[in-house]
Amino acid sequence: MKICSVAILGAGAVGCYLLWGLTDKPGVTVSVVAEGTRADRLRRAGCTINGKTYRPQVLNPAQAHGADLLIVALKYGALRGALDDIRAIAGENTTVMSLMNGVDSEEIIGAAVGDSHVLPALIKVASHRTEDGVFFDPDTTIGIIYGEPQPPFDSPRVQAVADLFDGTGLHYQTTVHIREEIWSKFRLNVCNNLPQAILGAGVGCYRDSVHMQVISDGLRRELEAIAAAKGIDLSLVDSAVSYGSLVKPSARYSTLQDLDAHRHTEIDMFSGALIRMGQELGIPTPYNEYTYHMIKAMEEKNDGLFDYAEGEAATRAR
Predict the structure, then answer these.
(1) 265: closest CA among 250, 277, 253, 279?
(2) How is the chain split among helix, strand and coil, in percent rounded to 5?
(3) Domain 179-302 in this protein, CATH class
């Protein structure tokens, strides 16, 4: 098995990491899947990554059909709307790798194209987007972690992905505990991404504030209780890969970056999913419920819902 064609669905920070690494891989064709104005913009402006502009081949889903590897790097809120595109791209022998870092994207994609196509994975990359493009540090990036959910763990497609990534600058690791790794990354996002987003401060806040640590710990307890109830043994995860990339205390993770830019966040993938699973399992999730509704309200604020005029009629406080 050899991967000769890669289609990337989603040209954000994660998609750009793959473009950066794979563009010059000999014998491999890399394309970004897009349509309409997004495709026009990509063809016109390309993707600027670490100061260099890349101009990838841009294909629509039908043109990308049968790619050897489809990498789904969408925002969570766009996933269900993209399932028809994923079906159109996936051929009989297409491997699909989701790098969305939730705990249910593989399940959603598998329901659309068949679980046998899905190779579970996650990514750890500390990137940020500015008006000048996407930036990340290749040396400190942990990268992609992937593996089969059951034996044989050294399957032909696991080796084919390793062969694809070799020599590209992309960092990657294979694992026999991919479910636990995915939940471990999910834990990092829930416990470190979300409280910081509400506070609006750099990640150093967890080091410098006992109050922020209490909130993070509360989110963690709820997540770990749900993971345990679902048979996820987080103790199996190697501690060497249980942490994210090294970042400065001023770093702002993706949820806060979204709020800063007045974009909607992926809170439905984080606390929203935990609330749903907690309800199904009978596990209370008060920290996640507060966090979910607080970030949703912050999105509404960014949308202008609370831009009240001075002359508006008075309302009774509740």
Answers:
(1) 253
(2) 45, 15, 40
(3) mainly alpha
The H or E element that residue 133 is part of is strand 133-136
- Position of tokens 């969408």? 74
Domain 5-176, architecture per CATH: 3-Layer(aba) Sandwich (3.40)
Whether 127 contacts 13, CB under 8 Å: yes
Q: What distance in Å separates the CA atoms of residue 125 and residue 230, rounded to the nearest whole number?
A: 27
Which residue ranges make up each domain of the chain?
5-176, 179-302
User: pTM of the predicted model, to two decimals?
Assistant: 0.90
The residues near 190 (Cβ < 8 Å, ≥ 6 apart) are: 219, 220, 223, 270, 271, 274, 288
Residue by residue, DSSP assigns 158-207 as HHHHHHHHTTSS--EEE-S-HHHHHHHHHHHIIIIIHHHHHHT--THHHH
Report the C-alpha gap between 223 and 295 in whole angstroms.
18
User: Hey, do 5-176 and 179-302 end up sharing a CATH topology, with the first three levels equal?
Assistant: no
Q: What is the pLDDT of residues 278-312, one digit of tens each?
A: 999 999 999 999 999 999 999 999 999 999 988 78
Residue 29: exposure state from Cβ atoms within 10 A (0-12, 13-18, ≥19): middle
> 81-91: per-residue pLDDT in tens?
999 999 999 99
